[in-house]
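Sorry to interrupt, but I need a hand with the structure work. Leave the record below and I will have a look:
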Amino acid sequence: MTFTSKETLIAYYKKYAKETGFAVIKRGIKKTEDIVYYLTLTCSREGKPRKSRADATKAAPTKTVPTTIRTECQARICAMLLDNGDWYLTKVVIEHNHALSPEKQGSSDAIRR
């Protein structure tokens, strides 16, 4: 599958993510001389959970510690810029290892990071 621009690619995946019920973050951006030629968009639950700082210092029991949402989810798309200016999907992983919540995605257009 190809896209005419990076913005079109991102908009397409954001729309898919919103309809499916997950948030998107940018990862693995490669560029030369300010020209992006490789892009990875992943589920926001990608990555390993980190121990919170409060856990490490044995915080007082009354202090609440936010729970992490990282689940090592592998859902992602990878795309590369072709010589003609189009973006070509090189990898598509649609399986998530967590529950999806389309009703909770709201109307946010922001991609984190």
